[in-house]
From TrEMBL:
Protein name: site-specific DNA-methyltransferase (adenine-specific)
Catalytic reaction equation(s): a 2'-deoxyadenosine in DNA + S-adenosyl-L-methionine = an N(6)-methyl-2'-deoxyadenosine in DNA + S-adenosyl-L-homocysteine + H(+)
InterPro entries linked to this entry: MmeI_Mtase (IPR046816), N4_N6_ade-DNA_methylase (IPR050953), SAM-dependent_MTases_sf (IPR029063)
PANTHER family given in the database record: DNA METHYLTRANSFERASE A, DNA METHYLTRANSFERASE YEEA-RELATED
TM spans (from-to): none
Upper lineage: Bacteria, Bacillati, Bacillota, Bacilli, Bacillales
Its EC number(s): 2.1.1.72
Keyword terms: Methyltransferase, Transferase
Amino acid sequence: MKPEQKKAINRTILKCRKILEQDIENQLITYGILLGEPWIEKDKLSLSDEQEQIYKDLRDAIGKEMKGGLSEKEALISYIREVTYTYLNRIAALRVMEVRGLMEEVLIQREEYGNRSYGHRNFFEVAREYCKSQSDEGLSYLISLLFNEISSDIGLLFNTEDEYSIIGPSNQALLEIIQSLTTEIDEEAWQQDEIIGWIYQYFNEEEKDDVFDRLYNKKEKIKSIDIPAATQLFTPDWIVEWIIDNSLGKLREEMISGERERKKLEEIKLLDPACGSGHFLVKAYDLFYQYYVEEGYPKEQIPFLILKHNLYGIDIDARAVQLTALILYIKVLVTLKQIGINEIKNHITVNLVCADVVLLNGNRLATMKKEFEKNQTVLKMIDIMYEEFKDTRIKGSLIQPEKRLKPLFEEDVLKRQKKLKSKKKKEDLGLFEGQIDFEEEQDRLSLLQSEKELTKYLEHVHNNAIRNNDINNQLFANEAKKSLTVLNIFLQKYDVVVTNPPSINVDISTDVAVSGVSKKYFSTKFLTLFLKYVYILH
């Protein structure tokens, strides 16, 4: 990408961020939620019934941030930032797709359509009276319809029922954002995959500068909460290509030559435990696609096979995971378009998760544990997860719950085997067949059973919460389900691990993100997170 294009992206993204953050902060004032001042109670506000529900939902959502260890002010700033990047990412996603011809134009205005976009002109024609009554001529409503439509394909970025969609940009702010993204960044830049990474890095630029100022100029000790902003740097193409070619590419060569046991392509798993905006996973996608084509797989199936079976990613920052999901979704659309397919008929499965889990307890936890009071394996699993995931917003993929869960699952599998053996013996059916290979299958099978039971319960809680407009129970179920996804990824075995992990000095003796590192391996008090990742992966 050209230097002037990067400068334009930097300038535009920071401008859009400021517009959205101020707009969201102003909207929160309506609900008595003030930055740096005491919040106003509901009975002192003039709210409609609908606004009263929004008031409650907002308080619950910001309260979840506080339960993650933030002060009221920090939680509010964090919530405003997350709503901002969620909507900015969504609008940027629409811009990427319309520029690449993956959807009809809905953002870029053209004179031939009455200074509207093609999609907006068409919507205006069929809903003229409604559009005339709106300050943005119905554009924001059209865009919300598109978000819902795309969420049926991939919900990670476009889920309009999450806590960051309780309120959205005002019509005026939305129009300003669209104007900036369509006129200040040229179409050539939007055509390039790496624009997603630059959007991510530049969005974080102010936090990164602040952390470095405190660290190097003010000589303040860096906190674990500063790690995402300080370490999220875009990895250049040539470095990513070299690493992928010499890891996944090398594995493929060794399997073909017979140096290594050959696996089916669907069985090869690649993980990026600090995936950022997905640069490594995108390059791996291209290589996997090449391999599937070489082995004669139907081209229309290959994109879905890659995302379902081959690629796994974790990050501590939800912005990163959203953008990774976006770029992989776009890769699928582009691949299908190249073979003449313009519509996705099935939901896309992606093995991506943000490890910023905040497990909520209280009455909901007690109710969940009561549901499984006769299943000791699930009860112990819940207790272990609540203990191990308490620092996950800081540690991310550095947590190791599998160390405590694997013995639990081993015990569960042994019990199941014992029951099956006893039953078969009584039935005089001979030797027990299908012994589970402990090295490969025991923890996975036991996890699947326990996870299935927990997930079924949490989906029930979540669906009831939606019907009853209970954002608290929605948050509880969502965070618990997210922890199960993180756990599932941790318990997989991977053939390739590629990453450019955080590299910043933190104090081993006091910092939770790197606690537990053996002095047997590192004699210094200070350790880069990079070495911690190497230690864990080894």
